[in-house]
């Protein structure tokens, strides 16, 4: 294969390429006239990928992908049949190796594989299993196992799921989008693979996170599984290991940057909103420099949101309000909380932005209120406490850099360590969104004992919990899964054209109020995952009502905006409930087109 360059591969007709490949890979006697005879097909598109006689997966050449209407339905790297076999064998042998050396993740991965095969065979049954056992299997199809799946995706890849758009598809996306078999798509989760959980740049392998999030859209929000679309935008990877890995499924070049990068994402957005004008696009696990910029670029014109920035912020706010209640104080005391945040990426800054806005609103929403809210936060990143003294300060973090005047009397300076900050600030809350394991060390927790709060709260939100701070307790991790399904469902059912701050705030407030007083006083801030469908229904209803209140709702199907506005709270909840898909076999009718 090494002798056939990628350019040559792309320029040859598929049949000639196949012959060349056969000759380069097999002893001459295998290449008979029989195996070079063309095969006549009576199908196109995904049907071919699902037919084991004709499917050749990632080995379909670019021209074949175009001719057969499957461009975009496979990872972008065209591989040889030998590479396919190498990948398969590696995966097969890995099982033996794991069984021998015994890493604890093997069981989780094995469960993922079994569930994934069911997903490919029978979607209704898959979602029934998932919904009925959500507490047990959410950690398999979603965080944390999904992180492991992404890391091992080259080996685990079997049947494609979702769409892939790459930098090499520029100019083609508008037509490619029609290769997707569904005429209606409600929900897209898109990633560029640049910051998958706390695992860094995983390139094309990040598709796993989009699939996992959409599994929750179906299981928790009751979005119809025929109307979800996971998307990977492959603009290359800066992960040196993947760039050299012969079995990697994505483009083996460095990431596009600047205007070139933005033009790819623009083209994708235009294509999907042209085919499906009512779709909602959730941006997921983009590195923070792009997470913020793309959110600002699209949020006023498209129905989209960024889960890591906005979903996480809402979940954190609900938790922070719960922490105030758990201290036996009224919620209105929230602006008095002193909060130390470890991590200044899309999640950390997203949380601080939204939480300070909530405080400011409680204080009167004027300039003084904003200034007072700002001064309640101390942000520590990889270089320590962020202050005005820092050179090259990240523009997104700048508003929250501690002011020179404040530092002296607190006995803190630029770059102070987390322990030092906790010792001096005596915070009510520490919140971890850094992706680094063990940050909330014994020393930090000891220092927190001197907190001025009667009941200091610790939010360990880094992922995956294995490398994160999550040792403290995973089952009740403040994860954005408490909100994103409801934000998506509420937006869909309201027909709002954009997702406003108010809609996000309403979602967070509903989650905060979901917990009963006695639960909060016991220190239980987030509900159990087993209630996720109920939580999601409530959150979605709150989003619908806010969209109506802000005059953004345009209605959904037979429910027009005027009728939506007439629904009271209970009726809105009922409306949401009746529009949630459940995994039951429908009556099937055959009709010849
Ligand atoms: N629980 C949730 O719902 C949720 C939601 C979003 C993100 N996350 C997790 O939060 C983490 C951060 O996500 P992100 O998008 O902000 O990532 P990011 O890469 O944009 O930011 C990571 C931040 O952590 C900082 N950091 C690194 N080492 C540190 C150290 N030793 N001490 C303090 N800070 C340090 C970095 O400087 C950076 O500011 C990831 O693990 C992600 O999976 C969790
Ligand atoms: O995916 C998750 O579990 C939460 C969050 O979106 C993350 O990126 O860590
Ligand atoms: Mg994420």
From TrEMBL:
Single Gene Ontology BP annotation: malate metabolic process
Keyword terms: Metal-binding, Oxidoreductase
Matching Pfam families: malic, Malic_M
Domain spans labelled Malic enzyme NAD-binding: 309-548
Gene3D superfamilies per the UniProt record, alphabetical: Malic enzyme, N-terminal domain (3.40.50.10380), NAD(P)-binding Rossmann-like Domain (3.40.50.720)
Binding-site residues for (S)-malate, renumbered to this chain: 195, 479
Cofactor binding, note field: Divalent metal cations. Prefers magnesium or manganese.
Gene Ontology terms, MF aspect: malate dehydrogenase (decarboxylating) (NAD+) activity; metal ion binding; NAD binding
Domain Malic enzyme N-terminal: start-end pairs: 119-299
Cofactor: Mn(2+); Mg(2+)
Residues that coordinate or bind a divalent metal cation: 284-285, 308
Organism superkingdom: Eukaryota
The protein's name in its UniProt record: Malic enzyme
Species annotation: Panicum miliaceum (Proso millet)
Lineage of the organism: Eukaryota, Viridiplantae, Streptophyta, Embryophyta, Tracheophyta
